[in-house]
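Annual report, structural modelling task.

Input specification for the cytidine-5'-monophosphate complex:
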Amino acid sequence: LPAGALAGRHVLVTAGPTHEPIDPVRYLANRSSGRQGYAIAAALAECGARVTLVSGPVDLPPPAGVAVTRVETAAQMLAACDAALPCDAAICAAAVADWHVAQRSERKMKKAAGSPPPVLTLLPNPDILARLSAPGPDRPALVVGFAAETHDVERHAAAKRAAKGCDWVVANDVRPETGIMGGTENEIVLITRDGAERWPRLDKQAVGRHLALRIAQYFSSDRSP
Ligand code: C5P
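The model returned the following structure:
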């Protein structure tokens, strides 16, 4: 990696799942490990960037030289991202929960004999990637989102790039037979304004370095994304 290639740049990275509380002891979550986002943050720091990593609950040590803000919910993740602005680039690798529980109970919900189980009403969470991509004075020069797809990876990822308003989409094929989800390797198609770049199958550390290198190239040229 080109040490110093991102010196003077501030990069925001989101990683991990979010936890959406039901009551003080229960929550909704997903299986994201945070591994890919942490690897990207580590590689960006190796390139000399100042990295703010906004992380949901994961079981990973903070990468060397990276400032980690730990959050639990999507609402907290959005607030932490807003607080980290301005930045030159934002990489949204987090698996943000799509919904939160409308009325979280301040007390542990009790199961009472004879009474029916509770019904949870869910409300949509803010889309952090779409918010960071929206035009405005704090809009980072480069905003990168992720797409997990099971078929037509390129077509769906290109549609996601347009829908979210981000510059690049890092797409991967999460069909179970690929072993990618929850695994240590990843096979990426990078969607940019110019089209699709297929990367070889790499471990998640190497994907992080590849992406950091691509970001360093972007900032060293005058090309827009
Ligand atoms: O909409 P979908 O979840 O498929 O999009 C995935 C991309 O959007 C990822 O980059 C993810 O980090 C980001 N995202 C987000 N906030 C959400 C949902 C998704 O930042 N509430």
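The two ends are 21 Å apart (CA to CA).
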